[in-house]
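ok so for the tutorial part 2 we go from a plain amino acid sequence to predicted structure tokens. step 1 is just haveing the sequence, like this:
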Amino acid sequence: MNTWNGYMKGVNLGGWLSQCEYRKDHFLEFITETDIKKIKSWGMDHVRLPFDFNIVQDKSGNFIEEGFRYLDSAVQWCENAGLNIILDLHKAQGFSFDKDEMESGLFGNPVYEKRFIDLWIVLAARYGKIGPNVSFELLNEVTSPAFNEGWMKLAEKTIREIRRIAPEVQILLGGYWNNSPDAIKDLINPPDTKVFYNFHSYDPMCFTHQGAGWVEGMPEDFRLKYPFDYDSPEAEGAKKCYEIMRMPWPNGKSDESYFENKFADALRRGKERNVLLYCGEYGVIDLADPESTLEWYRQIHSVFHKYGIGHCIWNYKSKNFGIEGSHYETILEEILKSM
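step 2 — the prediction. this is what the tokens look like for a chain of 339 residues:
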């Protein structure tokens, strides 16, 4: 079984350089080298670092050296600790996975596309030759399938430019529906063996995002234990959530077979194209009860192990999913063992 060596179990550093308050004191204090050492002590082999374009590039396309120094620090801390790191462009100029922001201005816009490619050229020159310790994720969570054609064209151009500078750097490519495994089928065939397919998994959403106020149609007081039978009375509330969210309702039971079925097509496409799969985000909101949360992690980890899928928990701290927080205290050790 082929696996992505050095990127088999990790944790996201969300909320540091993305989805955050853009203040210097936050950048200096939210994540420090002490956090990286703690992550290493948990037995992780890598971190994924989401960062927004405006950390390192202003709205005119000029680069911000101070912003790059935060990335420099993260790369150095990981090297010191013996961890690998994925640099994930979480929000680009003209595109955000957040519908409250500019969602669709990037694709097909020559100005924004050039700034996107220029940014990756600079990142490639700065970090692309460090070796397998640093990998790149071109863009986080494209939303609508309507953007796929433009995204694939831009991704091809960007990979080509990166390869001129950093022919060996490993690159992650994800698809629409917020990096859904169901979108793998519509990704381009990678130009080389160092480009991998990336997906995210928060399924079933009615469990992992229960009570999440930012999810359209999700009642903030909704709670659901896991596992559950999709045809059981306790699932009726979840079914109504799915109807409001216009998401297809699953069949059967919430067990390991659910994840096997969910990943089946992506696994088949990866095998056909000889491309490794990686799950860059998965996790459970801190409103779910701990016992249910632990069972969900055990199930999804079992399937990741079965198919050799590298994975990275969302999230290290904060962002309603932080495993470092008090909510996870009683189950964290068991979650880490199951990874």
